[in-house]
Specification:
Helix content: 25-40%
Number of helices: 7
Radius of gyration: 19 Å
CATH topology of one domain: Undecaprenyl pyrophosphate synthetase
CATH class of one domain: Alpha Beta
Mean pLDDT: 93
CATH architecture of one domain: 3-Layer(aba) Sandwich
Shape: globular
Structural class: alpha/beta
Bound molecules: 3-methylbut-3-enyl trihydrogen diphosphate, magnesium ion
């Protein structure tokens, strides 16, 4: 079957001469620990500074009128870290939701959380639900926070959901196609990321948005996440703007004159 080339996950084109801007930026916020080590500080301080960098990045993305930002804040594999670090990261999430949601709501930001909520502390689950509910009708930016998120886990959960629908008779086996599968993922209703930016110089996805990243452009920044700023974001966006995206075809979508 020929797929719909007007897929909403595709970036919007821009007037010729202006750089192509992504509609959806996803960030792997990595390097907090190394930043802390390089500054002779405990890892927790790196995570705290990482939260400041996230606040700055949200403001910068809003100012650039990019409608979707997704950030990787805790992976399904991060439970392998020492208990005290995991506890600190849970504490920072609580802090972020309690402190920042009001301001984000006043900036018309809609918050979504993706990842597995099973097994999370119940007060955190309640906070996540509240953050989503209080911002649900906002329209300037959809900020998706990947928390206790792993792409393999997400895909397995989607497969189980679809299998249950087939077993109950609500869905025909032939009814499962790429679109239906996409809608069973946590990111249903969020377009695929146009660009995934990873900080700290690591060159891997670490189980982030593996289905959705099929045609994402990848940009790697050598900066540790706490050092990521507006300038680094603009560099990444410029890099993205120079890419030629073909989606398997021959014509570049949104290619810029060189
Ligand atoms: C990213 O920074 C934050 C999380 C993964 C929670 P790290 O904590 O992974 O920092 P490094 O990679 O050890 O420097
Ligand atoms: C990826 O970083 C997860 C987040 C940024 C939340 P990691 O630090 O966990 O990734 P690896 O272990 O270096 O691949
Ligand atoms: Mg890391």
């Amino acid at each position: 079957m020929v797929k719909d080339l007007a897929d909403p996950s595709r970036p919007t084109g821009q007037a010729s001469g202006s750089p192509l801007m992504p509609r959806h930026v996803a960030m792997i916020m990595d390097g907090n620990g190394r930043w802390a080590k390089a500054h002779g500080l405990p890892r927790l301080e790196g995570h705290r500074r990482g939260l400041d960098a996230l606040r700055k990045t949200v403001r910068a993305v809003l100012a650039r009128n990019i409608p979707f930002l997704t950030v990787y804040s805790f992976s399904s594999e991060n439970w392998r870290r020492p208990q005290d670090e995991v506890a600190e990261l849970m504490g920072l999430l609580r802090h972020f939701i309690r402190q920042d949601v009001k301001e984000l709501a006043s900036q018309n930001v809609k918050i979504r959380i993706i990842g597995n909520r099973d097994g999370l502390p119940s007060d955190i689950v309640a906070l996540l639900q509240e953050a989503e509910a209080t911002t649900a009708s906002n329209t300037s930016l959809t900020l998706t926070v990947a928390f206790n998120y792993g792409a393999r886990d997400e895909i397995v959960r989607a497969a189980r959901k679809l299998a249950a629908d087939v077993l109950s008779g609500a869905l025909a086996l032939d009814g499962i196609d790429e679109e239906v599968f996409s809608h069973a993922l946590d990111t249903s209703a969020i377009p695929d990321p146009d660009v995934i930016i990873r900080t700290s110089g690591e060159l891997r996805l670490s189980n982030f948005l593996m289905w959705q990243a099929a045609y994402s452009e990848l940009v790697f920044s050598p900066l540790c996440w706490p050092d990521f700023d507006d300038h680094a974001l603009d560099e990444a966006l410029l890099d993205y703007g120079r890419r030629q995206r073909r989606f398997g075809g021959l014509d570049a979508v949104g290619a810029q004159p060189s």
